[in-house]
From TrEMBL:
This is Sirohydrochlorin cobaltochelatase. One of its GO terms (molecular function) is metal ion binding. NCBIfam families: PRK02395.1-1 (NF002670), PRK02395.1-3 (NF002671). It holds the Pfam family CbiX. InterPro entries: CbiX-like, Sirohydro_Cobaltochel/CbiX. The lineage of its organism: Archaea, Methanobacteriati, Methanobacteriota, Stenosarchaea group, Halobacteria. It comes from Halobellus salinus. GO terms for biological process: cobalamin biosynthetic process. The keyword Lyase applies. The keyword Ribosomal protein does not apply.
Amino acid sequence: MQALVIVAHGSHLNPDSSTPTHRHADTIRATGAFDEVKTGFWKEEPSLREVLRTVESEEVYVVPMFISEGYFTEQVIPRELRLSKWDVSEWESDGLSADTATLTAEDTGQTVHYCGPVGTHRAMTDVLVRRAETVVDDPDVGEGFGFAVVGHGTERNENSAKAIEYHAGRVREMGRFDEVQALYMDEEPEVDDVTDYFESEDVVVVPLFIADGFHTQEDIPEDMGLTDDYRTGYDIPATVDDHRIWYAGAVGTEGLMADVVLERASEAGADIDAAIATVREETRETTATGD
């Protein structure tokens, strides 16, 4: 038997924080690729400390629903799962290249394939682009559009900016959008000045966040000038300084995120190629129908 456990931060204050994680777990569960699909959270139930005890399978693939490598993926999750002999060097990562470490859970004896976070996987670039397609309602969006990837940015974790720059660079290499820019909330270049960085009249803005919350629903819309008060709502697109801003909301809410989770598990050794193909097709159809 093989199981998948998706672990995320969760929140005691924002009930929507765990919604994308549960939804992607449901999508994967429906494929039948794993005997069990579970979720575990730092700030919600089931907790990271207890989640492996809810799994009957002896082989478990653990995928962190986090954007970057750092404190949670390198310290909190391995500690709470009680992964024997864990050391961050197991990933041999430069801050973007964490792959898989196979370890034993001390209290359950399960074999755990601990994967890198979804946010640094190359497939996340496709989800960012899909998010643009969704908000514009055009599967061919690109020509005549600028594209902004927005991150939090922080001096506490330099890897946070690395993930933003990495995906912005990959989108740029596609040559699909006229302009591509990485922007941040707490460092330069700031999302507050989004229109200063684009000549394109139309700009798609996609936050590289797992779930919608305070930052994506309140801070960023107000910072960009989409509205003076998030509680009054805003148009999509909204006109700011003679630009049309197509604000997409958190990338983690896009259905194709389930594909990134599966890609991580597949690279760790799970035999799930058919499930990956199914998820890609089903999320494309869902996007097309606007559901």
